[in-house]
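Propose amino acids for all 898 sites.
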């Protein structure tokens, strides 16, 4: 732990490493208490003569250093907490370093660590330096040859990147395996796994006819839960071949599930390590959402094999180069899988559902981030701890920035740009600019005289831009003028800078349609084509477009399919929104209109709560909800999204000052009202959806949609205190034949009025699933997020024998879920104190996880005064912790600065 203030690393300070490192040989003597790593590094100097050779290291014990065959004494090198420096005089250098590390004591889950009885590594971003001294930066790429030695009974499997060259038994019950990865890679993609696993595998042939083996390793006893992950992997391989022409470049591709894991998964070359929650699934223990998440994350890590591994990042400021692009690719993969085998109309709806879910995630996590003290461009300008920048901005907004390029270039143009990107950069470590350059080379051909110069601003600007829309209809000329203007408020540390100048404009692809008063689409002439949807390229502060042949006053359908990560301002009337919510041919914009109606209703309720006025719900609003509920043309999945009220976090962003209790109260009141007023329809939806899911379980879009609608109906009935709610929820819970139904029943029971029915079900659930950690995580989560749960309940749950702070999934299931997703329980002075206690406890154990929890209330300065003051005090208490990690310190310092 560091207690000093950490230095700030700036993007502009990048310097190439003065040495090449073509070849790395590592020998591991594996042991959970203490492992010995012998490394032999062959450097070639490319920088100035006499350049010192600086290696990174952390929490290592140094045994010996040999430079070009000569053993160095302590006086021959410099050693401090973070670096080992030697001073070579030759241009070709062989450096042999022997060091020790302690996997069992490593609770950070970075570097080499123990999970269960097995050994795993996690090296991204800067974990390799916890394994051995090394130039631990992504622009140093090497071929690795790795020898793993360990006890054969304890670690029957010894895995690393690439190909297994040989394995053999050694004396004393030990054995060894030698692996070689033919692809040069940066250290963050190194991995080893040692332990006892079962394996499910599938032989495949790649597009060019090469044989390859796909393998999924997991704890013994869980082999019946890896079928979906392996199938998803095979689908991902195929998809990348067909949609991007990218083939698997390995003979063997391995996925290993780990119970203790800081994030979702890691794309180590040929040896992906996964959080077990993104691998293990069967109908009894995994929900539809888990199945979809597994498919998405399997896809994501696999797609990194090209976007991330074959072409990697020059430095960590370029993180979105691989993450934004790979999230875009996994989103498209999931959408294609969802739409597969459906009719055209159903496919469009399925894709819209995926888009709605992705945009909801963006608005829930990224919009708040972009308005808070941690606001940063998708390519950050500086950081103290890179681990803090694996953010919704870099990932999700980064994916939107890629998606906009896809929109601007079109599918085939984007594909041409990708081909060009790989033609230029395969095998190297590059920057975000290099990516845009490749895309621009195509854009310029498509649009002579134009370029992507203004578009690049998306990479250097933080904040969610607002686009204001003005519509001016000329009845005499039957023409319509659309004016778009853009503005982006200063955010985060920008607010502290004086003077504040307006940020430069962005290139915003703005998809737009027009509807007549009956809701029919009006065909628009744009750049010589007749279209239902036009994409306007807004690239100045304010621009006007004119459309002719518009028979009557039109209603605009704005930002179709969410064509840019912006907020739209347009003064719709309620009637216009209702019309769009019923008729817009763009399913995303149609959903959006309904959400806007709900938002307006909810904000009125918030105001009423604050004014202690009566809580009235507009009958028209209820009617708009009734219309969707009755619209059998819509798929169940789509209807379930359209009938879900905007989430509390999305709503909070629309209020200032933020009043969590009022927002939670407003949402609760509206759910209750809708539950009560539409009860017969919810009952009908529940029953018809129920009979639709009697087929053998499949996570496909149709079945998942029915279950999602059914669980929504049940939740509304429970919210409305329907007299049958408890019975219906009990029946669904106890008779469920899959985890989606079971969780829907359990959540409804826990959240309805009869506390004893909820308590009974929880007890039953625990007894039944106590041996399955991933299911017990769900058990903690329903309780953590129940509106009735208070700090005292959470503290009691922490005393439960099944609880541990050391396992990130478990900590997330209870602590994070409570702090971040229980507005009513967490936003109290007790809640803030509890949160600070947990940040401090985690800080000393796992700084990466602690720093994520530390962000829970980082938008504190926008809360109402009572909450604001209590949160600030808690941040100050955290700041005073004597052994604050660099990770948490950066978050707390930034939070308190605003
Ligand atoms: N690169 C990984 C991904 O996006 C995620 C990752 C980054 C990660 N750092 C990590 C995973 C640390 C675990 C621990 O897929
Ligand atoms: Zn990734």
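Proposal:
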């Amino acid at each position: 732990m560091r207690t000093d203030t950490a230095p700030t690393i700036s993007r502009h300070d990048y310097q190439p490493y003065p040495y090449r490192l073509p070849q790395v040989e590592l020998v591991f003597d594996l042991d959970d208490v203490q492992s010995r790593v012998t490394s032999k590094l062959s450097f070639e100097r490319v920088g100035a003569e006499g350049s010192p050779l600086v290696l990174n290291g952390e929490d290592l014990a140094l045994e010996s250093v040999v430079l070009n065959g000569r053993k160095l004494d302590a006086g021959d090198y410099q050693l401090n907490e973070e670096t080992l420096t030697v001073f070579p005089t030759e241009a070709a250098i062989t450096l042999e370093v022997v060091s020790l590390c302690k996997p069992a004591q490593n609770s950070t889950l970075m570097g080499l660590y123990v999970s269960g009885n097995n050994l795993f590594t996690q090296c991204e971003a800067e974990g390799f330096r916890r394994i051995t001294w090394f130039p631990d930066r992504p622009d140093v790429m090497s071929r690795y040859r790795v020898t793993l030695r360990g006890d054969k009974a304890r670690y029957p499997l010894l895995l690393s990147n690439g190909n297994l060259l040989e394995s053999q038994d050694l004396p004393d019950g030990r054995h060894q395996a030698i692996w070689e990865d033919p692809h040069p890679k940066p250290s963050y993609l190194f991995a080893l796994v040692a332990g006892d696993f079962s394996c499910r595998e599938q032989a495949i042939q790649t597009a060019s006819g090469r044989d390859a083996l796909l393998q999924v390793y997991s704890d013994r006893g869980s082999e019946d839960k890896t079928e979906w992950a392996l199938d998803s992997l095979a689908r991902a391989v195929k998809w990348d071949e067909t949609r991007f022409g990218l083939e698997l470049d390995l003979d063997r591709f391995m996925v290993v599930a780990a119970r203790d894991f800081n994030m979702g998964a890691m794309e180590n070359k040929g040896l992906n390590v996964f959080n077990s929650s993104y691998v293990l699934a069967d109908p009894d223990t995994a929900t539809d959402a888990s199945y979809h998440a597994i498919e998405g994350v399997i896809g994501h890590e696999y797609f990194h094999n090209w976007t991330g591994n074959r072409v990697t990042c020059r430095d960590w400021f370029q993180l979105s180069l691989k993450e934004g692009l790979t999230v875009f690719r996994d989103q498209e993969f999931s959408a294609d899988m969802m739409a597969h085998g459906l009719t055209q109309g159903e496919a469009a709806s399925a894709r819209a559902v995926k888009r709605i879910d992705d945009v909801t995630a963006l608005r829930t996590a990224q919009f708040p981030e972009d308005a808070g003290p941690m606001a940063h461009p998708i390519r950050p300008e500086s950081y103290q701890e890179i681990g803090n920048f694996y953010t919704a901005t870099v990932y999700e907004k980064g994916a939107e920035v890629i998606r906009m390029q896809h929109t601007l270039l079109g599918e085939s143009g984007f594909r041409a740009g990708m081909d060009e990107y790989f033609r230029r950069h395969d095998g190297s470590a590059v920057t975000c600019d290099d990516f845009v350059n490749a895309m621009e080379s195509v854009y310029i051909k498509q649009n002579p005289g134009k370029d992507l110069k203004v578009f690049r601003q998306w990479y250097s600007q933080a904040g969610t831009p607002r686009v204001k829309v003005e519509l001016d209809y000329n009845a005499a000329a039957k023409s319509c003028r659309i004016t778009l203007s853009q503005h982006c408020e200063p955010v985060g540390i920008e607010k502290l800078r004086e003077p504040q100048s307006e940020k430069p404009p962005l290139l915003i692809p703005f998809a737009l349609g027009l509807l007549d008063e009956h809701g029919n689409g009006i065909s628009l002439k744009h750049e010589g084509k007749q279209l239902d949807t036009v994409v306007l390229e807004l690239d100045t502060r304010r621009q006007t477009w004119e459309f002719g042949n518009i028979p009557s006053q039109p209603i605009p359908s704005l930002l179709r399919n969410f064509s840019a990560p912006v907020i739209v301002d347009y003064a719709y009337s309620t009637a216009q929104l209702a019309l769009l919510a019923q008729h817009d041919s763009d399913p995303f914009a149609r959903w959006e209109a309904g959400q806007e109606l709900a938002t307006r209703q909810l904000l009125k309720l918030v105001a009423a709560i604050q004014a202690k006025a009566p809580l009235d719900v507009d009958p028209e609003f209820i009617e708009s909800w009734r219309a969707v509920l009755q619209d059998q043309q819509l798929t169940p999945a789509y209807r379930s999204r359209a009938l879900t009220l905007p989430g509390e976090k999305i709503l909070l962003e629309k209020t200032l000052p933020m009043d969590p209790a009022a927002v939670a109260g407003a949402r609760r009141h509206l759910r209750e009202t809708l539950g009560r007023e539409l009860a017969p329809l919810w009952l009908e939806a529940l029953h018809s959806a129920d009979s639709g899911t009697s087929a053998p379980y499949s996570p496909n879009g149709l079945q998942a949609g029915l279950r999602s609608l059914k669980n929504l109906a049940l939740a509304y009935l429970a919210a409305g205190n329907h007299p049958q709610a408890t019975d219906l929820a009990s029946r669904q819970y106890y008779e469920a034949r899959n985890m989606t139904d079971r969780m829907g029943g359990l959540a409804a029971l826990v959240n309805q009025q009869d506390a004893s029915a909820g308590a009974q079900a929880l007890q039953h659930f625990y007894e039944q699933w106590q041996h399955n950690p991933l299911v017990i995580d769900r058990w903690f989560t329903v309780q953590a997020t129940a509106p009735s749960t208070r700090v005292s309940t959470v503290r009691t749950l922490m005393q439960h024998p099944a609880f541990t702070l050391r396992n990130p999934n478990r900590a997330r299931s209870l602590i994070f879920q409570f702090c971040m997703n229980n507005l009513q329980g967490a936003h109290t002075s007790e809640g803030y104190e509890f949160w600070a206690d947990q940040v401090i406890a985690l800080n000393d154990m796992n700084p990466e996880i602690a720093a994520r929890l530390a962000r829970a209330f980082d938008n504190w300065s926008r809360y109402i005064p009572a909450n604001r003051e209590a949160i600030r005090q808690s941040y100050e208490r955290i700041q005073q912790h004597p052994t604050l990690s660099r990770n948490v310190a950066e978050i707390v310092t930034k939070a308190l600065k605003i």
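The pocket of zinc ion (ligand 2) is lined by residues 300, 304, 323, 326 (CB under 6 Å). The radius of gyration is 28 Å.
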